[in-house]
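Structure ticket #2291
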Amino acid sequence: MAECHFTSTPVDTRAKLFAIDGAPVADPTDLAGALQYLTLTRPNLAYAVHQVCLFMHDPHEPHLTLIKWILRYVKGTISVDLHLGTGSVQSLTAYSDTDWAGYPESRRSTLG
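Resolution: structure written out below.
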């Protein structure tokens, strides 16, 4: 992945993942678990990483494709992150977006 082209979005918003879609991955290394640590300083990756982590008990090719997509996005935005420092906080603003029925197998919200 060191020589790959980067992408401008952390996830393909049109594609929906399914548990048994595609061929099983022969060597399911825990790349998704490693990406979870990256979400501490890169919260924009949280949704994409969560989507792929839903299927890591039995990963298939589309799940590996999403991991590669996330890595391509990280490569293109390597200088973007949150600095975690010490000091007083003057204000905090949080935003949320819902994904009603975003998990296509159970039709439940993937956000809450």
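Closing remark: Residues 1-77 form one domain.
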